Amino acid sequence: GEALEVNREVNCVTDFIHGCEDQLQKLKKQKEKGLLYGIPISIKDHINCKGHISSGGMVKFLGQVKEEDSVIVQVLKHQGGIPFVKTNIPQTMINYDCSNPIFGQTLNPFNPQKSPGGSSGGEGALIAGGGSILGIGSDVAGSIRLPSSFCGLCGLKPTGNRISPPGCSDSPFVLAVTGMLGPMARDVDSLALCMKALLCQEMFQLDPTVPPIPFDEEVRLGGAPMSPSAQQQS
C-alpha cells in the first residue's frame, strides 16, 4: 500500500512482482528462516525477475519477458526476502536523472521540482518516500551513490565481482568499469545485513565466478573513529 502511495506521488515503480503472497506462504512453512525473512525488497528495473521484462527504459526490450530470476533475486528469495516491485531508471541507465519514454519521469519525494538522481532513481525515490525499506540498485559511475545522496539514503557500491552481475537487459555500451549491484536503504545496518545475506553459499554455488568470501563483520566494525589530533594532522 505504501509503495502504491509513493508511486502515485513520484512515479517510481515500473512493475509489481506477482507471486509475493505465495512466496510468503511458502516461507512460513520453512523450518529455516533466512537472514532477510519476510522483508519486502524493491528491485531496479534492469534486474531479471521471472515473468517480467527488464526494459532498461528502452522500447526494444518491452516484448522480452524473462524466463528466470537473476542470481541475486534467487539469493534474496533463498534468504527469505520478498522482491515485490521493480523500480524506474533513466533510458539506457547511463544518466544521473531518472526518466525514460516508457515510464516517464521519477520525481524526488522531498521536492517534486528536483530529480531523485540516477540511474537507480526509482529505488532512491521509493525508499526515501517510505515505500520500501531495502532495495537493490546498480552502480557503474555513481548510479547507487548519486540517488542515495540526492534522496538522503545510504547506499553501497560493492567491489567489482563481489556479487553476481544482474543477468539483465543487454547494455548498449561496453564499459571499462565493472558495474555492480548493491543495496540501498535508510541506514548502514540494513546495507550490512543485506550484504551478509547475499554473500552466502547459495550465491557462490549459483555463480562460481564470484569469489566465495563471506561478509566480514569485523572489518565493518573495525574502523576506529579518528581522534581530533589525527584529523588535524591528516
UniProtKB/TrEMBL annotation:
Keyword terms of this UniProt record: Hydrolase
Domain of life: Eukaryota
One GO molecular-function entry: fatty acid amide hydrolase activity
Keyword Hydrolase tagged: yes
Family that this chain belongs to: Belongs to the amidase family.
Gene Ontology BP term (one): fatty acid catabolic process
Protein name: VDHAP protein
Pfam families listed in its UniProt record: Amidase
Gene (name only): Vdhap
Domain Amidase: 5-212
The organism's taxonomic lineage, starting at the top: Eukaryota, Metazoa, Chordata, Craniata, Vertebrata
Organism: Edolisoma coerulescens
